[in-house]
Specification:
The chain has nine helices and 13 strands. It is of the alpha/beta class and 320 residues long. The chain has an eleven-stranded mixed beta sheet with strand order 3-2-1-4-5-7-6-12-11-10-9. Bound molecules: S-adenosylmethionine.
């Protein structure tokens, strides 16, 4: 087994496990940046916001954010942080099924929430959200549920959220909108309170037709489908211990694709710790993606789809 430079003490060990959902998601950073440029003061609804890693980023770039979560602890923590940082976030503690939609939103986030609802509730929630979305508005949806048609073990498909919606249900529900991105991957995770586990992830982005100068393009990057054994070994569970981007590059050589996202100012990070600035890098070796948060390896995924999307506005080369 290779030697890794970290795990020095208890507090360092806490930071060395595989972890996800630290700062804002990559698609939120890029699409938020685009909307800030084209629609200052755009209105966001963050459903099932958790402690607000995405809401805090979006409010920080000038969005008027409403965040809803059933957890009083999450909502309280976000409200305190927002107040201290003077961010415009309406933080609502409640269930998404009962939340009254009072505005037309430009951006709706459903990150890791719809699969907690049964299928019919999730789909009726989606219908309401669509009606309350401005022309050209965007929905970013991440669910953790694979279709049974996937070639992964049945027990894995069925574990967790058996009665909820699938990506195919969502694709049908949004047939009258544009699907501008759909990625599918298996994410390794190990956060406090749970052992090592896998998340089957579908990440989708839809755009409502209409609206001027706001057509959003997803740029697809085809990834090779090589059997990269050395990458698999490097990223395999028990060996994935805190390491730096430089060390990973030294071990594996240059990645096939590399994307870096920066969020300035106060951001949430792992376990709700807030700090100044957040840099997320995704490095792809064929279909294996490693995530680096502020230069440290924090997780990895195996992509099942052959695309990774970046975003820009049509006719505005270079934005986003
Ligand atoms: C996987 S976390 C995702 C949090 C956040 N969206 C993120 O990406 O970091 C799911 C969140 O949904 C909330 N939640 C689950 N069921 C809910 C419901 N029916 N209504 C409101 N919030 C709910 C939980 O409290 C939790 O914060």
């Amino acid at each position: 087994m290779r030697e890794y430079p970290a795990i020095l003490d208890e507090s360092a060990a806490l930071r060395t496990i595989i972890r996800t959902m630290g700062g804002p998601s990559q698609e939120v950073i890029s699409i938020g940046g685009i909307l800030r440029g084209s629609l200052p003061g755009f209105r966001t609804l963050d459903l099932g916001s958790g402690a607000g890693r995405n809401s805090i980023f979006l409010a920080g770039i000038g969005s008027r954010v409403t965040a809803v979560d059933a957890s009083a602890a999450h909502i309280g923590a976000m409200a305190r942080l927002a107040q201290g940082a003077r961010l415009d976030i309406e933080a609502v503690c409640g269930r998404v099924e009962q939340f009254q939609l009072l505005h037309q939103y430009d951006l709706v986030l459903c990150h890791g929430i719809l699969h907690f609802l049964d299928r019919s509730t999730a789909l009726s929630t989606v219908s309401k959200l669509k009606v309350n979305t401005a022309q050209g508005g965007i929905h970013l949806i991440t669910i953790a549920k694979f279709d049974s048609s996937d070639d992964i073990p049945r027990s894995f498909v069925e574990q967790g959220h058996p009665n909820t919606l699938t990506a195919n249900n969502l694709l049908r529900a949004y047939e009258d909108w544009s699907c501008v991105a759909h990625e599918r991957y298996v994410k390794r995770d190990h956060h406090p309170g749970g052992g090592y586990h896998l998340h089957p992830i579908d990440k989708l982005a839809f755009q409502r037709p209409g609206g001027e100068h706001r057509t959003l393009l997803g740029e697809a990057h085809l990834l090779n489908d090589d059997d990269r054994k050395e990458v698999q070994t490097f990223l395999s569970t028990d060996e994935l211990i805190l390491t730096s981007k430089d060390a990973a590059l030294e071990e594996l050589g240059p990645p096939d694709l590399s994307f870096t996202y920066n969020a300035r100012g106060q951001q949430l990070s792992f376990q709700g710790i807030s700090g100044q600035g957040y840099e997320l890098s995704l490095l792809f070796w064929s279909k294996y993606a490693a995530y680096f948060e502020n230069g440290l390896l924090v997780g990895f995924s195996t992509y099942r789809s052959d695309r990774f999307h970046t975003f820009r506005l049509s006719g505005s080369e270079g934005l986003g």
